Task: structure prediction
Amino acid sequence: RTQELEEERARARGLEARIANLEEQVILYREAANIPDPVSHARIEGALSWFSPSQNVRVAFVDRGSLDGVMVGDTVMRPPQMFVGVVSEVSEYQAQVRMAGDALIQIPVQIMGSNASGLLRADSEFGLIVDYVERGESLVEGARVVTSGADRTAPALVVGSVLGTIQDPAKLFQVVRVQVDPKAHISGPVLIVRQP
Result:
């Protein structure tokens, strides 16, 4: 039995070393691509617990609050770079998080592989969309949608991917439909980060 425990500990140490190596590689790639580190500022570890979603409400709770330093407007993410939501209310021991698709938040985003940026928001007709993207902007289905870093949201966090676009010749902007990564909406460990 002792032999098995020692082997398991050795495997765990090997995995920890591999994770540390991969994290160093991510940092090098981010620096090479000039992508800012979304968690280089204040961060608090917590756990996200689920909620009962409805059509236009996407709210979860995190087990950290004002006593832990959490503030309204902080970004909630899953490492290494997945956007979960924005803290909207804080009590002493927990915080409410509004997630992508909630009718009460708009998130500044960029669409990778293009110069397109806009506001991610819920739309009653099309679901989750990026608004204010110029009509002439060419976008690829499946392109990553990431936070832009504006409006105190941590930058370069993956929100989801482009499902398609809706063009209306009478309008200056196109509607970009977005699918959120479903892993963002599950219970479990998260980081709460704050931009300076």
In short: The chain is about 15% helix and 40% strand. The longest strand covers residues 82-90. The CA atoms of residues 72 and 88 lie 5 Å apart.
